[in-house]
């Protein structure tokens, strides 16, 4: 058997296998998941400096005694939810077995 014939046979076998087993032929990431991951990265990139400025402003307002502590607690909870969203989603999905 020549090398050319063996290569053609191997390529043909791979083509038949990819048609018979479509899961292997389409083994790629979901476009929705890729887009959602990119969106999450962009939101976190924008949110990081905003959260830093927010904490600085809340600290200045607290030093001047010009704010309610409810605002401070709300800001801390919001920042924790925003940056902990992937872990929260994983936790909730694990609770429901999804």
Defining key terms:
single chain, 98 residues, mainly alpha
Topology:
Elements: H1 3-20, H2 22-25, H3 31-63, H4 69-83, H5 85-96
Helix pairs in contact: 3-4
Quick gist of this model?
The chain has 98 residues and is mostly helical.
Task: Describe the overall structure.
- There is one protein chain.
- With 98 residues, this protein is mainly alpha-helical.
- The protein contains five helices and no strands.
- It has a domain at 30-96.
- Helix 3 packs antiparallel against helix 4 (69-83).
- The longest helix has 33 residues, at 31-63.
What is the number of helical segments per DSSP (H or I, 4+ residues)?
5
Main β-sheet, in a few words? none
Dominant shape: elongated
Mind telling me the C-alpha Rg? 26 Å
Kindly state the number of beta strands. 0
* SS content category: mainly alpha
Tell me the β content. Answer: under 5%
Return residue spans where pLDDT drops below 50 for at least 5 consecutive residues.
none
């Amino acid at each position: 058997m020549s090398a050319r014939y063996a290569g053609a046979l191997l390529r043909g076998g791979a083509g038949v296998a990819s048609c018979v087993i479509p899961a292997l032929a389409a083994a790629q990431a979901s476009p929705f998941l890729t887009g959602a991951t990119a969106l999450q990265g962009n939101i976190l990139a924008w949110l990081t400096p905003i959260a830093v400025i927010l904490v600085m402003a809340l600290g200045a307002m607290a030093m001047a005694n010009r704010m309610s502590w409810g605002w401070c607690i709300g800001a801390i909870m919001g920042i924790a939810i925003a940056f902990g969203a992937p872990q929260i989603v994983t936790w909730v999905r694990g609770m429901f077995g999804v």
